[in-house]
C-alpha cells in the first residue's frame, strides 16, 4: 500500500508536470526523489553520501550534455535530412559511464558501484511503468 501511494504521489507531483512542460518545473523535485531512491537502494552511509553526490552530479551533467547534443542533432536532422549517428551518441554515453565507474569506485565499494547502474535503470523503469499505468486509467 505504501509503495502504491509513493508511486502515485511521484507521478502526480513530479513526473507529469515535467513531461508536459518544456521548462520542466518538477525536474528538481524528480531529481530529489531519485536521490532519495538511490540513497536507499545503495544504502549510502552519511560519509559515502557526502563523497558520492558531488561525483554523481558531475556524472549527470556529462550525460545531460550528451543528451542535449543528441536532441540538437535530431532537430537539425529534421531540417537538413541528414541522418543522426545514434551509435556515436551511445558510444559517448558508454564512455562517460566507464569513466565515472572509476570515479565512483574511488568513493564507494565495488558492490555499490555495480548496484548504482542497476538502481538507476530500475528507477527509470518504475517511472515508465507508472506513467503507462496512469495513462490506462
How far apart lie the N and C ends?
A: 18 Å
Order of helices and strands: HHHHH
Question: Biggest β-sheet, characterized?
Answer: none
Return the average pLDDT rounded to an integer. Answer: 83
- From the spread of the alpha carbons, the general shape counts as globular
Radius of gyration: 17 Å
Unreliable spans: 4-23
Task: Compute the number of structural domains.
Answer: 2
User: Beta-strand percentage?
Assistant: under 5%
Derived from helix and strand composition plus strand pairing, the structural class reads mainly alpha
Q: Fraction of residues in helices?
A: over 70%
Number of DSSP helical runs: 5
Task: Describe what you observe in this structure.
It is globular, with a radius of gyration of 17 Å. With 137 residues, the chain is mostly helical. It folds into 2 domains: 1-44 and 121-137, no CATH class; 45-107. The protein is built from 5 helices and no strands. Mean pLDDT is 83; it is low at 4-23. α1 (2-20) packs antiparallel against α2 and α3 runs antiparallel to α4.
Amino acid at each position: 500500500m505504501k509503495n502504491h501511494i509513493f508511486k502515485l504521489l511521484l507521478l502526480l507531483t513530479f513526473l507529469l508536470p515535467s513531461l508536459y512542460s518544456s521548462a520542466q518545473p518538477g525536474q528538481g523535485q524528480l531529481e530529489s526523489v531519485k536521490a532519495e531512491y538511490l540513497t536507499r537502494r545503495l544504502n549510502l552511509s552519511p560519509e559515502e553520501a557526502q563523497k558520492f553526490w558531488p561525483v554523481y552530479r558531475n556524472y549527470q551533467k556529462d550525460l545531460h550534455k550528451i543528451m542535449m547534443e543528441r536532441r540538437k542533432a535530431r532537430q537539425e536532422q529534421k531540417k537538413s535530412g541528414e541522418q543522426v549517428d545514434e551509435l556515436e551518441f551511445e558510444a559517448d554515453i558508454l564512455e562517460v559511464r566507464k569513466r565515472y565507474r572509476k570515479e565512483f569506485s574511488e568513493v564507494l565499494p565495488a558492490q555499490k558501484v555495480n548496484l548504482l547502474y542497476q538502481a538507476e535503470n530500475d528507477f527509470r523503469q518504475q517511472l515508465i511503468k507508472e506513467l503507462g499505468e496512469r495513462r490506462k486509467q
